[in-house]
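Lay summary

Proteins are chains of building blocks that fold into shapes. Our project writes down both the chain and a compact code for its shape. Here are two examples, one after the other.
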Amino acid sequence: MIFENAHEILKKIKQKEVSAQEVLESFLKQVEAVNPSINAVVALDTERALEKAKEADKKIASKSKLGSLHGLPMTIKDAFEVEGIVSTGGNPAWQDNIPKRNAEAVQRLVDAGAIIFGKTNVPFLSSDLQSFNKIYGTTNNPWDLERTPGGSSGGSAAALASGMTPLELGSDVGGSIRVPSHFCGLFGHKPSYNIISEVGHMPPPPGSISTGNGLSVAGPLARSPEDLEIALNVLVAAQEQDSPAWKIKLPKARTKKIKELKIAVWPDEPYAEVDDEIANLIKETADDLKHAGAQVETASLPMSFKEIDKIFSQLLNPLMLAGSPQETFETLAKLNEDLDPNDMSELAKVARGSVLKHADWVVVNAMRQNMRQKWREFFKTYDVILCPTSITYAFKHNHNPVHERKLTINGKDDEYLRATLWAGPAVSAGLPSTNVPIGMSSKNLPIGMQITGPYLEDKTCIEVAKIVRDLRGGFKIPPNLQ
């Protein structure tokens, strides 16, 4: 039961093969059994969840009209406010925050019948590739407890991979849905920009209203692409403030037939060197798609990775620095004074972001809009593009100061924050992108890749994810949990 896909569980609930209460109790039992070692679920709402499950079963018995998630228990990333459950955003200053209403995306899940029974761990303010904070401590990867499940939706991914929840709601501005999915062997979807409400996400502080910052999105994580699709159908909607007039209806997938697909492949990149095992698995996957009948070509990109990264970093870093202490800005401003204009190290990019004037941001944003149009033209030729989710697979915990951390890529040291480089193309252009597992590393750790598609054509990405899953095998249960 606990490792079944959400759509399989929902079918059993609706056909009365199992009760919503029994399903919830199965997940609660798994939390009790494995969470002490993984530390993914950081808050529970057991009593209210059990009452809601009983009510869900009564509705089925009375043949009431049911929502598409009716009776499904699930957890929510602790970056979203959930009514009646402590919601911290990983920030000790907010550890007593118990919201009186749900984030808008959470409310849509609840309205569809989902039963929220807990929250999952995040880094401080969702601003790291690892999920640890001073309130709840460190979340471990179910595949190797000495490694991170990623961040910022790391608790979400670890809970899914270890059978503690069948579905999750995460958020992504620098790979925060896709990288944890890649590290834990899951499916995760970064939607097109602004099709799922982030009102009720933290940051900003609890109770604040953020209607969009130009980059970040909310989206689902799951163990199958079908579950992503079900969740997407529930979550996609105009924000409440716009709902009197605006409606969103995503187009159907371009095709469900592999022989009609035209796929671009971008397996590696000198500017953002990827571990050879990841690049090789992407090439293998591309070969599998080609042999199955898809038209597959090495991508001729509409712009260089360096150009993309320059735009992305100048949009992202001011956003990530917002609310930082004044001394942080002063230190970075001083560092910026002596920077070589060609220095594209991660610290240099952060320093530039700290002093970016709004007039300069307007120019960068105009460059972003030009880039979006280039991608639009690109996707007139191709249906999707396949590329790495990160330069590495799951790495060992490292909680040193961020700019002291290093990663080893193909035997060479690389900057820690470069692990987010491959998140940039989709985020900066507002494109949908689905992480799909494609194989295992030599260390028996999951490896995924991104399927990125045209703006608002999220369902094409998910349809291709189904095809890749059928060719490559999809989610696997970590060996110590089988």
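And here is the second example, written the same way.
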Amino acid sequence: MATKTQMDSAREGIVTRELSAVAKDEGIPEKDLLALVASGQAVIPANIRHKSLKPHGVGRGLRTKINVNLGISGDCADYGVELEKADLAAKFDAEAIMDLSNYGKTHEFRAKLVERSPAMIGTVPVYDAVGYLEKDLKDITAQDFLDVVRCHAEEGVDFMTIHAGVNRRAADVFLEGKRQMNIVSRGGSLLFAWMKMTGNENPFYEHYDELLDILHEYDVTISLGDALRPGSIRDSTDGAQIAELIELGNLTRRAWKKGVQVMVEGPGHMSMDEIAANMKLEKRLCSGAPFYVLGPLVTDIAPGYDHITSAIGGAIAAANGADFLCYVTPAEHLRLPDLSDVKEGIVAAKIAAHAADLAKGVKGARDRDFRMGEARRAFDWDGMFRLAIDGEKAKAYYKSVPAHDPRRCSMCGKMCAVRTMNRILNGEDVSLEPDGKE
């Protein structure tokens, strides 16, 4: 029996188990979510073989989701550490994990990830091609690339980044533009190099229909990769980026015709004043498909702090229509992130996503903030720690420099504004004397 994707089912008015769970989680009517998935305005990445998945929706009107990148490299090939990163992502309720491993045989690690992780799992198959096939890049064939896609789909991957938009037309625009940073997308650079060495068209573009057939068979969501995303502020919103985005819009509509769910990936480095316009441009050119952004990083001069530059850009992007944020860690541009880097990146991305949801008026987004305000007014420290994105860190800070009175923090003592107002509005005197009555 042929697979029905989430999009196929939604178009037929069928409420799948995954759609029902997402509607309940988001607090929206199933009929509203059906319409969004049917039209491509929202996706529910859910490979039919990912049995441990907790489904999530990505798209218009839904909470902004975050992705955590992990995976080994030739210099750091410890799968145990990467699984610890996956566990950390689960602890902080990250909705997605991308395995970006680019060294050796990655099948065993990916199988464990799919088996144990409730998060959506994503990959970039072109990374795996060299190690999986044991061929030099120029010797890989178009069919080889498709075979790796099928392998990942069979393993249960929920979404795949496919750089199908960097075709010959877009590549010509890139070459004419003489960029500062050229192509900073790892997958995009590999495909461009393959095209130059072989003289062939991008295999994922040339054989796009066959690619879609594979993805449809397992209900894998295609995440159309932005191979020509800007890698520096100087390159943002240039001809190459826009030329590729036009191609991605066409590829989006072709995938929808086949019932394949689509996300579109967005810019990397971009000053703040360009972000809102870029979000609107993507939504227009790609017919409202969910937008998945890396950052954007709003300045190039903060290595070691790029989780902050990314969170700033991500909050602005999501407030203006982006649906999915890829986290960035303090190690970006410097090294493979360790566990501490991963935590900092996750928390920064969660803050950005939630801040954007407040601005977008996502249903229920403000409830937690309102409860935090009540807990602060009541000096309910345990309540504050439970509501915090990183309650463990908040609690450790509070306890590290204890106040004389444990009901307050050590910042203001008896001059605490909350204490003053609670007492005076309750008809009590306010005493600042050391031995004053509480």
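What can we say about the second shape? The mean pLDDT is 95.
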